Structures are given as structure tokens and as C-alpha cells.
Amino acid sequence: MSFAGLRVLSLESRRAMEIEGLIRRLDGDAFVAPSVQERALEDHSDVVHFVERLESDEFDLVVCMTGAGLAFLREVIAAHMPLERLAAALRRVTIVSRGPKPVPLLRAMNVPVAIVVPEPNTWKEIVAAVAERPERRIAVQEYGRPNLEMYEALERLGALVTPIAIYRWELPSDTQPLREAARRIATRTVDVVIFTSSIQLDHLIEIAHDLGIEAQVREALKLDIAIASVGPVMTATLEAHGLTADIIPKHPKMGPLVKAAAELGAAVLCTKRAPFKRNIEKP
């Protein structure tokens, strides 16, 4: 299993060094361009009020969407009240964790987790898990942006949904690496692009548009570059942009994604580029 020197581009931010190491260990020529930063909201009033509402028994169930969001929540609360107050408030409700990442943070606060949503950890699995529960006053610890589809699906179950916004996704402070990534894709000096979250594609297209090369980036991704998608949510985002995920791992995690890209990348490229080569060779 090897990239065999293929030029591999990743837009990972929080785990940039990890994915670069994985690519290089599998003989890939790695270029990692951070595409997003997580910024805690400056107004903490809603987060503080969230703890007070938990204490007043206004919620039956809390959905923890991300470990990063919980970490931000703890930091914000620590500036306003003892952390034990947050932990005690969370112990009053049923906790649903979207996958395993929030679990260690919750356990560190001695907060029991009733449900760990199984792979692929999308909003659909969350709704399916909640559908079997009696609780209908639901607070959702949001990640980088609202998940309106999930809120609407929960409301169709008769739930009263309250989003708790803690942080938002933004472009990185230094966009030069992301601009370089867009240029490399547009000039087709990339063989494989690895996507681990939907916001990466959104920000790539935004930067490409600003550079005046959006059409070239879309065409290159469609015709000439192997696209590796971490899982269903990312794949759906690609499809919404008129793109197809060429490589999807069995498990929606970074390690299996990089390994699948190394295993399948060369074959995908041969298939995608063959029609182009045939057209060039025609007399």
C-alpha cells in the first residue's frame, strides 16, 4: 500500500501534522494547506445561560456534536463559574455523543453518556438514536455551523430544539497555503486531494473564486484529480458541488481515509485521466 510518489494535497487544519505524516509514511508527496480555524464566540451570555437553563430543568437531553466544542464550552464556563457547576448541570440530562470524541471530555467531568452515536456519525444517526428516546426538549452543542437538516428532522419527531453556539468556522488567518492549494489544483499539479470535512471544500471554492480560478479548480477536481472523502457528509457536500468522491474508506476516520487513498489513488487516476489521454492522442 503506497502512494508511490503521487502528489497528495490535504486541507486539514487541526490535525495537519498528523495527516502529513501519514501521507509521507505511505510515500506520498504531501502538501497540507490548513483551510479553517475554529473561533470561540466573543459573546458568552448564551453559553452561561445554557448552564442556568440546565439547572432549571429546561432540557431533557443534550447532543454533544464535537470534542472541540466541549473544550470551548469548558473554557468559556471556567471564566464565569466553577466547572463542577457545568458538570453537575450536564448530569441532570441525557447525554448523546456524536461518535467517540466528546466522550473523554465528558468522562473527565464524571458526566455519564447514555448514547454514543455509531459510525458514520452523521446527523441521520443522531436522529435515529433520539427517535427511540422519550426526551423531547433537546439542546444541541453546535459545531462550526448550524445543522438545519438535523434540527428540522428532530422537530418532525416533536422535539423542541435549542442550538447552543459556542464556536464558528472561519478562514485561517494566513490564507496563503490555501491559495497555493487552489492554484495547484487549477494547474493540475496535484494527483490526489483528501477531504476530511465539508467546510474544507467550501473554503477552497471561496478562495478559488477570489483568485478567479473557481472554474479551473472545479474542472480539475472533476476530470483529473482523485478525490478522497472521509465519509457520507463529505461525500454529500461534494455531490452538492457537482463532484464525485472517488475514494471512500470503510470507516470514516483519517487513518483509514489516507490508507484507502494510497491503495486506490493510482487506479482512480488511470480511470479518470484515460478519456483525456484518448482525446489528446486522436489524430
How many H/I helices?
12
Question: Would you tell me which CATH topology of the largest domain applies?
Answer: Rossmann fold
Tell me the span between the first and last alpha carbons: 37 Å
Coarse morphology = elongated
Order of helices and strands: EHEEHEHHEHEHEHEEHEHHEHH
Structure, described:
With 283 residues, this protein is of the alpha/beta class. It folds into two domains: 138 residues, Rossmann fold, CATH 3.40.50; 131 residues, Rossmann fold, CATH 3.40.50.10090. It has twelve helices and eleven strands. The chain has a five-stranded parallel sheet with strand order 6-5-4-7-8, with helices on both faces. The protein has a four-stranded parallel sheet with strand order 2-1-10-11, with helices on both faces. Strand 7, helix 7 and strand 8 form a beta-alpha-beta unit. Helix 3 packs parallel to helix 5.
Question: How do the strands and helices of this protein lay out in sequence?
Answer:
Layout: E1 7-10, H1 16-25, E2 29-32, E3 37-40, H2 45-55, E4 61-64, H3 67-78, H4 83-90, E5 94-97, H5 102-108, E6 115-116, H6 123-131, E7 137-141, H7 148-156, E8 160-164, E9 167-170, H8 176-186, E10 192-195, H9 198-211, H10 214-223, E11 226-229, H11 232-240, H12 254-281
Parallel strand pairs: 1-2, 1-10, 4-5, 4-7, 5-6, 7-8, 10-11
Antiparallel strand pairs: 3-9
